Amino acid sequence: MTTKKTGAPLQKTLAQCWSKYSYVFVFIIILIVYAITINANGNHFNPGHISGILSSQNTVIVGTMAIGMALVIITGQIDLSLGSSLVLCAGVTIMSYNATGGNVLVMLLAALGSGLICGLINGVLVGYAKMPAFIVTLGTMLIYRSLTLSVVREIDPALTGSSSSQFSMISSMPSYDFLRMKFGTGSLRLGSIQIPYISFLFVAITLFFIFLMSNTKYGKSIYAVGSNEKTARLTGINVERVKVSVFAVTGLLVGVASFIQACKIGNVTPASSGTSYEMYAIAAVVLGGVSMAGGRGKILGVFFGALSYTTINFIIVSIPALSPDIQNTFQGLVLIVVILVQTAGPVIKEKFVELRHRTKQVHQ
Asked: Whose CA is closest to 162, among 242, 95, 259?
């Protein structure tokens, strides 16, 4: 009479769940650490802290751009110009709002249009001119921010909305209260938790791109280009067009993020706003389980990656012993550790399976 090993199927199921949804478990673990940190400081973790994570710039603004960054990385490229593109697009967005007397439609079209142009410039140089994405986006990172700084200092304050080096929405416009107070900083109460309206927009964008990447030919072509460019070309995929398109889509998402930036904060400072946002986006992508080598990753993972990165920032800030000067060190360490787990994990697993197989052969 044989006895069934009930532990083995359970262990296999747990391993499969971790493999498929590791980003969810990582977020839960980080959230638990955050709750412990809050309680250790004499406060009580409450739904307000969840609302803070959902409404944070790192979640909504950086998270929206991180979805675009994920598409670029899945194709095996990189985009270092996100932060500078955000500043340029936000400047155009706010100026169009001020120039049209608060016309929301023109403001949104200006945001999307300027983002698309920035993305297409990157995409055409990478896709058709065959230039390395790292060099192209490093160059446009410098160009976009420099142009924005030049414009804000030279243009009429009636357009910039500020006499200082800043683009600012004019608060006397009729639509200002709706954009800033209702949409930008407003929230919907669900029980004891308040969900910001901009978070609903972020969720909608995430769901759209989950569908796009999972259920469309275009999404499959992005994975194919990142997995093996030569094979993708042989199957009839226009590799150059796919590369251009992912940068263009990323530009559109930067435009959406600039619209959110204007509605949530009401201004943008070219000299300092958006600094290191491209790094934060990469961190969210990596925490979401997207492979930096390309060809693998899920958009849902990027969503949880953005939540995880925001929570990590909140943990660091909530530790009194850490000075602001050292906080970036811990952010960098987290990013390095996650990439190390990504690269070393499969190797360790392969060695473990090989060792197990040899052990079985010895016993036989």
From this structure: 95
Q: How confident is the model at residue 1 (pLDDT cuts 50, 70, 90)?
A: very low
**Position 319 pLDDT exceeds 90:** no
Q: Residue by residue, what is the 3-state secondary structure of the chain?
A: CCCCCCHHHHHHHHHHHHHHHHHHHHHHHHHHHHHHHHHHCCCCCCHHHHHHHHHCHHHHHHHHHHHHHHHHHHCCCCCCCHHHHHHHHHHHHHHHHHHCCCCHHHHHHHHHHHHHHHHHHHHHHHHCCCCCHHHHHHHHHHHHHHHHHHHHHHCCHHHHCCCCCCEECCCCCCCHHHHHHHHHCCEEEECCEEEEHHHHHHHHHHHHHHHHHHHCHHHHHHHHHHHCHHHHHHCCCCHHHHHHHHHHHHHHHHHHHHHHHHHHHCEECCCCCCCCHHHHHHHHHHHCCCCCCCCCCCHHHHHHHHHHHHHHHHHHHCCCCCCHHHHHHHHHHHHHHHHHHHHHHHHHHHHHHHHHHHHHHHHC
Q: Which fold has domain 49-339?
A: ABC transporter involved in vitamin B12 uptake, BtuC (1.10.3470)
Phi, psi angle pair for 316, to nearest 5°: -60, -45
Question: Does residue 280 surpass a pLDDT of 80?
Answer: yes
Q: Looking at the predicted structure, is the pLDDT value of residue 282 above 50?
A: yes
Q: What average pLDDT is seen over the chain?
A: 88
